[in-house]
Give the backbone structure.
Amino acid sequence: MAYKHLLRHLSLSCLAVVGLIIPPAVSQTFKWPDGKKMAISLTFDDARGSQATAGIPLLNEYGIKGTFYLVPSAVRKQLEGWQKAVASGHEMGNHSLHHPCSGNFVWSREKALETYTLDQMRSELTETNRQIQAMLGVMPVSYAYPCGHTFVGRGRGTQSFIPLISELFMTGRGWLDEAPVDPAYCDFAQLTGMETDGKDFEQILPIIEAARKSGQWLVLAGHEMADSGPQTTRLAMLRKLCEYAKDPNNGIWIAPVNEIAGYVKAVRDTINIPEMVVTDAKGILHLTAEKGKGTGPQIQYMPKWKAFGWFGAADAVEWEIEVPRAGVYEVRMEWSVDDKEAGKAFVLETGKVSLSGKVPRSGGWENFQSKSVGTLRLATGVQKIKFRPGQAFASGALLDLRQIVLSPGH
Ligand SMILES: [Zn+2]
């Protein structure tokens, strides 16, 4: 099985110290390009005046490209400056048409999110994209939530517009968040944004160092780019930050949001992210390899096959499932196995119930088949379900498992 050389899924371990659980910082499966240890995106909002006149020329000195979340009316005031910014390779994002925030900000009372609808939000976001493209010739794929607010309406009528951002854009960035983005886990429509305004480099450095330790993506966010002032990312700080980020010894990949998001998405397609399995419209549970958690010394998720490759007797795969109705479920397995490895025992177990069987022949490792292998009585609620070898074996493999499908009986 020489083709199974792709990313290895390493299990995470938790450390319990005096009653405190310290979670693992980041999935061990995520790798940055060229041996980099972390990523940074410099982002700035509102198309403030100082960005085009002072901030962008400074970034250009270092050959560093930022992401600028624009409000079209502000771009219009400095059109030439923003056209130059596009020509120098900076990313232009969408920051809405009228910058609506909660009406708790008095300046936003006339355009309060509490009075918005999703339809209105959709049409304004689309119009913003249209205006930016007309002025600058680029179509935004990145969005930043004004004030970091993600809702429309109020009380029981409140709705999130995160799904809309997820539909219209590659990413959505928040504001005043307290942690960097975990590339292996993040929801692209909710990238965290950490503030650079009013900070010295010495205050940013510990955040960078912590993010590097756990291989995270730090999306920094600011407003004005000047020597001093309110809501201002100071140029002196920015200079130090650029120098630090450019030093190859620091292992930093600094690039616009769309560039890093594109890389993260591509890598994410090749690793599996354990996720709770819920029923589809027909009440069926699809326990795909992509949603399972592999444990054991040799198990590997193989993106090319969307399956777990099964090597040793100590390997297993576990899913978290939510069963809405207790009852007997038909168990269907989608697998492949070399003829000479077929026939070993497997066990599927949850709580006190289990199903045992022998892995049938599929006609070779590259030939996946789907077959009913029995039934299992499931209890209602969230539970773990595990698939493992049912016998010890010293060499060879059990099977490659793509998914287990649990269908409710009649
Ligand atoms: Zn803003």
